[in-house]
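Support case: uridine-5'-diphosphate-xylopyranose complex. Customer-provided input:
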Amino acid sequence: MLNLAVAGTGYVGLVAGVCFAEVGHQVTCVDIDEAKIKLMKSGRSPIYEEGLEALMQKNYEAGRLEYTTDYRLAYENADAIFIGVGTPEQGNGSANLSIIATVARQIAESVLKDCLVVVKSTVPIGTNDKVEQFIKDFLVHDVKIEVASNPEFLAQGTAVKNTLEAPRIIIGIESAKAEKLLMEIYEPFHLPVVAVSRRSAEMIKYASNDFLALKISYMNDIANLCELVGADVQEVALGMSFDDRIGNRFLDAGIGYGGSCFPKDTKALDYLARENGYELRTVKAAIDVNNDQKTMLYKKACKRLITFHRLKVAVLGLSFKPGTDDLREAPSLLNIPLLLEQGADIFAYDPVAQNNFSAKFPEGINDNGSITYVNSIELALEKANVCFLFTEWDSIKSIKPNVYADLMRTPLVYDGRNLYDPKEMKKEGVEYYSIGRK
Ligand code: UDX
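Agent response - structure generated as follows:
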């Protein structure tokens, strides 16, 4: 088993580190955040992720997993160092690589033996070449280092499963030595490994994410047309899904994609293309459709209501998708300010993301309206004038149509996730609007 270090304990770094320990490697996770390290040492996960905390505790107790802020200690004798730090979007849409550069510099100062540096973070094509040169430029000791690409495809909420049971591992390598070491690292996972060049590996990550984003935007575009011509997008998706060239996943029209990857990675590839003198028209279209889609329900509601002023508005679901407390690019972040501006009194429910949301929108008077966080769906719906559904949590999906009719003052529901059968809602007396259906 190998001695591995992982830089960054966000979704990518922490999940990778824990899973490497789970298959038997000796892993040290590094982060600059002292409080986070302390929290993890106490057995707690800094992120909400199914199954992660249990694996953290198990492997920490078994002595295979360590957490530290001391990067030197972690890097000096590592066989491989994985970089899983953030590459956030910056003003012009490109990826900000400053955290990667900081880690690269720390690696250059610390390594005492030959070592493979593996970039897991999503980085623009060509970055691995630059990281390798950068580390070589700053190397303090007489050792050989090489950089490999190993993009991460985990989805939030299912990150551990996605890592331990990934459909494929992509490795981007420029030497047989790097390939051999990565094969050894991934051998205990018993998963298919696709070995390609570093630049192809970097591109596979963007091309995959952007393809999925495009698939969703395509269905949202079709959904908007379905409404105009009287078709039902869910029936359309069902019919399409039987064609295995299309597949049956990521065909759900809704309130647009959010999260930490699709919005950022579409913009980054669009930027990279323009930088290379090329216009990536399909990806650009996916971005445009998504921007409009996120406020589609709000716009529909504005056509139906004169104003939201002093209306009780129930908002069910705040996170960008179920299974996570992450709010990055969540549709709620765009819609709630619009409602508050119009003077709505919002009663918001989310099983896990309320704390994160209230850090951005504190409870009480806000703009022309107000926001109150409630811990039950019933409290949100009671005497509400209108309800918005933003996230398909199980607890929200399980609410029967009659509950809206029974609890709300006016049962008017705008559903961004197509959770209900319009006919059933109508039967219960609920005025119901969804995406891509009459
Ligand atoms: C995604 C990719 O799935 C993952 O492989 C990559 O590594 C990171 O980005 P994630 O952002 O965690 O993962 O969530 P995902 O489940 O893919 O959903 C992304 C967004 O698309 C969510 O807002 C979701 O609601 C939306 N979505 C997804 C749809 O609107 N329709 C669909 O059919 C599927």
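The longest strand covers residues 3-7.

Case will auto-close in a few days if no follow-up is received.
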